[in-house]
Amino acid sequence: MTDIAKKESLPAGGRSRSRIGRSVFWLIPILLLPVPLFLDQYRQYVVNLILVYVPVGIGFNIVVGNLGLLAFSNVAFFGIGAYTSGVLALKLGLPWWATVLPAGIMGALAGSAASVPALRGVRLFYLAIMTLAFGELLRWVYIRWVPVTGGSFGMAVPKPSVFGLPLLTEGHKFYAFLFLVVLMVILTNRLLRSRFGRAFMAIKSNEQAAAAMGIPTDRYILLAFAWGGFVVGIGGSMYAALVGHVTPIAFDLTELILEFAIIMVGGLGSLVGSVLGAIVITSAPEFFRNWLGFQELLFGVLIVVVILFLPRGLASLLARLHPIFVDRYYRD
Amino acid sequence: MRPRASPVLRPAGFDPHGAGPVLALFPQLVVSGIATGMLYALIALSMTVGYRATTVVNFGHGDMVMAGAYAVFVLLGSGMPFLPAMVLALALLFAFGVLTQRVFMQPIIAGPHLSLAIMALSIGYAVRGGARLEWGSEVTTLTRPYPQDAFMVGSVVFTTDDLVISGVVLGLLLALFVVFHLTPIGRLIQAIFQSQRGAALVGINVHAFHGMMWGAGAALGAAGGVLLALIVPLSPDMGVWTLLRGFAAMTLGGFGSLHGAVIGGLLLGIMEKLLGFYVSTVFIDITAYLVTILVLLIRPSGLFGRQASIRV
Amino acid sequence: MAALLELTDVSVRFGGLTAVDNVSLSVAAGEVCALIGPNGAGKTTLFNAVSGNAVINSGAIRFQGEEIHRLTPHQISAKGVRRTFQNGGLFAHLTALENVLVGLHTRVDSSFLGLLASAPASRRAESAATARARELLDLMQVGHVADNLASDLSGGQQRMVEIVRALATEPPLLLLDEPAVGLAPHMREQLGQIIRRLAGERGIGILLIEHAIELVMNVSDRVVVLNYGKKVADAPPAQVRADKAVLEAYLGHA
Fold first, then answer.
1. Measured between CB atoms, does B109 come within 8 Å of chain A?
2. Which residues of chain A register pLDDT less than 70?
3. Could you tell me the residue range of the domain that residue B132 belongs to?
4. Which end of chain A is flanked by fewer CB atoms within 10 Å, N or C?
5. Looking at domain C3-90+169-253, which CATH architecture does it have?
6. Domains and CATH numbers, chain A
7. Is B147 exposed, middle or buried (0-12, 13-18, 19+ CB in 10 A)?
8. In chain A, what residues touch C165 (CB-CB under 8 Å)?
9. What is the ipTM score, two decimals?
10. CB of B123 less than 8 A from some CB of A
């Protein structure tokens, strides 16, 4: 059997990280705590926007990067989360914190709905086309369902509050957002490192073989979409709180390329990548906001360059720095 | 902001919701639907050509359509007459299609479908962003190279727009049919569509072929863009609008089927008009989305596609 | 001996083509049954029918006395029919260890909510499964590559890991689809020994598709020959070797 065992294994470290190593990650949110002390309202707003896009990227990456399905419906989940939060606050007078979970649940329901074609065996381009149509149909609903959504002009969302405490400044929002982001990262990390995450990756690698291992692939596809939708929906509720105004135009196709840029530049299938992508991508366009079309051009070119020259995204660069950053990133 | 199909639905001076028994409008709706459908058919066909050659769906194809329209706009602005401008625009888009396929798609052609789809999508976005930077804030239109007019045949109104669009598309379809079925190169293309491996075995440069067909698709799409620009204002988003309708037409006809794309486009055009008039005007906007979703759920192979079932 | 797997008059048709034509065969516990025949004879289709990846048009497939031909692949797998794939069915994006863990999927008793809450029971289930997977890899002497991505393994290692993955849940029946492809001759011998041991020591029933005829003759208790979807022979290896119909159908081509 020595022949079979010929190839040398990687130096340890890589995948079997120690507990001490992992706890380093806890330092990141703690180190971030004093951030609002150093930033003006505008810069804090940009940081908050980054936080909004961390869950958006994470949820998208689960479906595209981990499950490996080409679904373009992420913007729809984001929009549903934002509208759910906005409508509950505006029409029912719920405080923002109470709308976060419903926004996630609505996102999960939308995710489940978007997974129906995949469950029926629709794959590859067909799924992409269908989910694209689903997203556009939804945006049309935002525009036309005026009594609820406010139509093209959107709706003004009441000032957010948490347990009776109003989030008056961007700094206040920062702490609420940071809490949610850390929570989503931890929960998703637990999921991806378990048999659930392995099942997603197995389906991506070889769906037939995954089923042959006793994995009910349908159920796991549904689950990946639902969890992805849940996390993205929570991002949507954060968006509503941050911007204070939910309009259909925020969920158009320009948004799609931004979200693709986050997961592609960050690293497909990598949780670390989703976070990195949100940081890099979200902070860029804020500075070019008034330059119409620049976002699309920039992100389009950026993704082309990444696919050609850095197919595993920034996560793969980070992984080269130190084994502690090695994450399950995309390879093919 | 987004182009509407309404100029074709409602010819100048004609109000379909006006007087007259509702059923009497049926022929009018079908005629208007066919004119729009011709446009969809051309777009769907142009997408199918590239897809059949490379088995990759060009998610940036709509932006080629848009680029074609703007190319004509720019050339007209430089004083060129319409027809030469259109021919030159198609040639430019052909070259652009070949170039993007060879430079960006070919290097990753063996990679996962996911990368290919996102690559094509991103190229499209870059083109769209460029167009928006240049023309995003101005309303621009193409001047028709023919008089805008309408005339009655029986109780049906025909506009010159309808006739020009239908005429040009029919002409292109006929030309394509002749090329495909009656020329050696057309038979060659068909053979390659059937079996790429076989084509490679007999010494055909399949890579070059991919590029050429991607370019041909872009040029055909650009023709569709120019025709569309005759009836709606130019906009960087006009491409995406056509992309989604092209997908609906392809899906309805059967993904990858050439004649399916044409028939799917025509049916979609007619359905939009009939549903829009008899059921609710909202259908003018959403028929394409509903058709895409329902067909893929109920009969993924469409009308003329090959049944492919994988059990997992 | 009661049959572990029993196919009765099974036919599979694709459009006008009859890929498997009225085939009956059985595999007993602890028996190695080889399925041979020229390319296109319907061997893999027959496998797919057993594992639920192909729909049968007539006949019946029973596993431990129970009809399984209407079940989905994951249900059949959960009943204890495991298979390997012709062109390497490893999950390229996962490590060798994770591949085996996916093989153990149905045995990992961790729940969705339990994992989200990081409940001790679920954590224990996950780490127990990981330990078990490492043990299995060590047992087949591929433990040192446990943390390598499957796509980085050599052909032989991939084959081993795939077999470990299929065996992880100790299934009563194992379907091996051309396990010796791409293996050097001496590694084929090792593979043969492993197959014999699995059948002999653990009583696993093995249905084997293989073109390497020496391997087939060495390890099988029985050889079934398919040609154009029909069964043309079903006998011990020595007898099959002498069979005229087989020589014509298969060995003549070799």
1. no
2. 1-23, 121-123, 285-290, 323-332
3. 6-14+24-298
4. N
5. 3-Layer(aba) Sandwich (3.40)
6. 19-31+41-325 (1.10.3470)
7. exposed
8. 213
9. 0.84
10. yes
